[in-house]
Amino acid sequence: MRDVIDTAPFPIGVYTGYNMKIVLANKCMIKTYGKGPDVIGSNYTEILPELENQQIFEQLREVLATGKPYEAKNARVDIVVEGRLKPHYFNYNFTPIFDADGSVFGVMNTAAEVTELNIARQETQEVEKKLRLAVESSHLGIFEIDLYTGSMSGSKRFKSFFDSNQEGLTLASFADAIHENDLPLWQNILENLSVTGEFNCEIRIINKNILYWMRFSGSLSSSDNKENIIVGIAQDITQQKKNAQELVKLVEERTLELKRSNDDLKQFGHVISHDLKEPVRKILLFSNLLKDDVESLPQPRTIQHVNKINKSASRLTEMIDSILNYSSATSPSLDEVVDLNQIIEDIKEDLEIKFIEKSAVIEYSKMPKVKGSQILLYQLFYNLIANSLKFSRKDIQCFITVNFHVNVDFLVITVKDNGIGIAVEDSQRIFNAFERLHSKDEYDGTGLGLALCKKIAERHKGELRYVQSESSGAVFEIIFPAGILD
């Protein structure tokens, strides 16, 4: 017996008498005691007094008294090891040993320590508990579907999604609750589970004549004994669907309002271009007639007033045209082939009187052809060149140059003049709509010219920027992507 006990790979000890004297103990058991190697001959109750209140002594004495074995599974036993009371878990047995007369003279104690297994189980239970709390707080229901038997089971919340009085929910009874239009989707997912291994869908459920949207997410279990079990979570997404529908409805309403607003703007543009400009033309017409009548009379103040009427009417016409141009800068097609040389020549012709008044000269290199809007690109260069004429210096001849260069990524066009220039601190303000750096008495205009130019450049996927000149004058760069070249 001693040889068997000593070579056993698990703890074994033999105790005799009421105080349970240790008569045999192998190395595994001595290590389990945690009291050192010299324990043979000592009383079990003396070397492990911490077991006094853990019912183990009573269990041993019960075996001695009755001759009936005792077995414990996953029992917690707190043992002092290295001066500290530590919890251990054991599967242990107390087996009576009989003498030749059939009397119990001792107890054999066999044990298997399962501390690590129990700690892992407790951690797993803790994780599962936290997971259940998280799932419950997220209003999710856990479910299982047995594909062999067709039975369905789930958490309390999962069952609450359906008739609370329903017992024994099955795939067949569940299918009866699915909206008829969603039933093919449900069946198709089940049929393809063996291939995909995934279970994800959103379907409508009818419960007590009320329609619910449910989202199911799950997969086939990877456990060896649950190969045909689907495990997953279910969520009531009815409110989410309602919110989404309301959002779609709201977007449609806003889109309709925007369309109405755009239609109103178009109508407004029509009113400006026709109805408002007509009385302005009449003001100009009759003010010119009045001017002709009073010019022969010695009434300088009357002539001065007439001139102011003429100037205001002209500015109003210019402002109406500028607003219309600015509001329509995103409308024209950008698929036309535009010869920039012809654009500049047309501008020279249209501004001929201004060129003569300013004794201005414009020079430009042979410009490329580009893809874009003829009317918008004309407006872009017209405004830049007109500004150069407007803000020229009185004491020197106005000189304007237009050049370009091309690299791998960009076409860069430069419009430069020798006018009064723009201060650094104003280099960004000039592109704001209705932003004026000078009073209308100094220079006429609406403050929309450069804002329109910037908008046209951006409409062609480009950029307009002001470059600080080392000398006097203004320098503007129009930067287009190289793909604009025809």
Structure description:
- The protein is α+β, with helices and mostly antiparallel strands and 486 residues long.
- Helices cover 43% and strands 26% of the residues.
- The chain has 15 helices and 17 strands.
- The chain has helices at 2-7, 27-33, 44-47, 56-66, 115-137, 156-160, 171-177, 183-191, 193-196, 238-295, 300-327, 340-350, 352-358, 374-390, 449-459, and strands at 12-16, 21-25, 70-81, 84-98, 104-113, 140-146, 152-154, 198-207, 210-220, 229-236, 336-339, 361-364, 369-372, 399-406, 410-417, 463-467, 475-481.
- The strands form four sheets. Strands 2-1-5-4-3 form a five-stranded antiparallel beta sheet, sandwiched between helices.
- Strand 3 (70-81) and strand 4 (84-98) form a beta hairpin.
- The radius of gyration is 48 Å and the shape is elongated.
- The relative contact order is 0.05.
